[in-house]
Every structure is written in C-alpha cells, then in structure tokens.
Specification:
The structure holds two protein chains of two kinds. By secondary structure, chain A is mainly α. Chain A has six helices and no strands. The radius of gyration of chain A is 21 Å and the shape is globular. Classes of the chains: A mainly alpha, B mainly alpha.
C-alpha cells in the first residue's frame, strides 16, 4: 500500500531527525558540523515534497554552501583540531532534558489534538515566477530591509572579527 | 495526516536545538542548536502554507528566515572569534568577565 514517495518522505524525515540527534550528542564538534549538513540536505528534500523547490534550492545554497562553511572556518580558527574530546558537562544535561522533553510533549499534544483546517485538493501556484512577483510586490519592504540587514551584518562581522589594535 | 508528519519532525528538531543550546559548552555548538531551531520554524512555515492555505506566503517567510539566519551566523561567529582572541577558549563557562 505504501508507495515509493511515502518511503522516500519517511526516510528523509528520519534522516533529518537522526542527524540532528547526532549534531546535539556527538562529542567531536567537527563531526557535529558534518552531521548538520545531512540535516540541512534532508530538510531541503522535505521542502521539495512541500512543493517549495525554490526554498529547497536556497536552503542548499545558503545553509550548506554558506553557513556550514562559515561554521567550519570558525571551528578551524578557534580550536586545535587535535584536541578531539570537547568537554561536555553532564550536570547541565539533566536540566536541559527536563526542560526540553515536556516542551516536546506539549508540541506533540497540540499537533495531534488540534483540528487543523486543512485545504482539500491542494492547488499550489507553480513556479518561481509567482514567488518572485509576491516577493517584489507585496513583500517589497521586508525584501529591501533584508538587504540593509545583510549589509549591516557584513560590515559588523568584518569590524568584529578584525584583530583589535592595541 | 501529512501535515502532522512535518509538524512532528519540526517539533523534534526544535527540541533537539533547545537541548543543544542549554547543554553544550562550546559556543559554536550552541550556534548549531540555534540553526536547528531556525530550520524547524522554517519547515513549519512551509508546511502550514501548503496544507492550510495552499499559498506561497509561508515560503516567503521561510526565505526571510534563511536570510536572517545567514546574517545571524556571520555576526555570531565573528563574536565567537573575538571571544577566542581575548580568552583563547570557546567555552561559555570561561565567559565570566565583563572586561579584561
């Protein structure tokens, strides 16, 4: 009964969650960074299933191509890779899990108890063209503000990372 | 039921990100937790925009989340490098001085 599409969907959903588990619980932080790549890729596949192909492309380009590279550079600049075992305090694990697990319980309760108003016979507007016209028409102001934000972040990151003159 | 699948995945990612934020000592690992949380919210936006309104508005929000995550990662990693220069460690436990 289960068709191929469902199998792929479940596989990538499980891959996203399990690689996120590895991101959190692996001791070597370089392995965590590479596991984060798997999470981002499987999320891109889920975006394709949600008929958001452009968002999937942007996810791969910016997250995997940009943010992950940035993370790896920061890792290599900030610690000797030979000192493998990162110190993990086990005293902080219990409060973190005690905080997070009830939160997960509340989320799952809300997700499965709420009577969502679902659209029947989903007809999505296809293509990047309608996304672009929406982005440059209705969401023009946030779009321009995002460009100013990126410029500010660029200049700010350069200023912050520059070694200070004594 | 498909909406429930995506929402469950996003809830799991959000929870794991929160555990990383509260548990890890390494600043860069904490930032990875923040990225997981942002991705979970983006997945929620796209899933809701498909299944509850069949529109593209949620995808726009996901795009803006990705843009802001990029800006946040750049500034935060610059701060991490700055902190490493001054205290030669990326452990949050050593960040206990207001000036040095």
């Amino acid at each position: 009964m289960i068709d191929f599409k469902t199998i792929v969907l479940i596989f990538f959903g499980a891959l996203a969650v399990s690689s996120a588990v590895l991101v959190v619980f692996l001791r070597n932080i370089v392995y965590s960074a590479f596991s984060l790549i798997a999470t981002f890729f499987s999320l891109a596949v889920l975006f394709i299933f949600l008929s958001a192909e452009f968002v999937a492309g942007v996810q791969v380009l910016i997250y995997v191509g940009g943010i992950l590279i940035l993370f790896l550079f920061a890792l290599m600049l900030s610690q000797q890779l030979s000192q493998k075992a990162v110190k993990l305090s086990s005293t902080k694990l219990l409060p973190a899990v005690l905080l997070a697990l009830p939160m997960l319980g509340i989320f799952l309760f809300v997700i499965y108890q709420t009577d969502w108003e679902l659209v029947q016979n989903i007809q999505m507007e296809e293509g990047v063209a309608s996304l672009a016209s929406l982005l440059l028409d209705k969401y023009l102001l946030p779009f321009e503000l995002a460009s100013i934000l990126l410029l500010g972040a660029l200049v700010g990151a350069l200023l912050l990372a520059r070694p200070g003159e004594k | 039921m498909e909406l429930h699948f995506y929402l469950t995945i996003s809830a799991c990612l959000f929870t794991l990100g929160t555990i990383a934020i509260f548990w890890r000592n390494n600043l860069i690992a904490i930032l990875m937790g923040v990225e997981l949380v942002l991705n979970a919210s983006g997945l929620n936006f796209v899933a809701f925009s498909k299944y509850t309104s069949a529109s593209l508005h949620g995808q726009i929000f996901a795009l803006f989340i990705i843009v802001i995550a990029a800006a946040e990662a750049a500034v935060a990693l610059a701060l991490v490098l700055r902190f490493y220069q001054s205290s030669s460690s990326v452990d949050v436990e050593t960040a206990n001085k207001l000036r040095h």
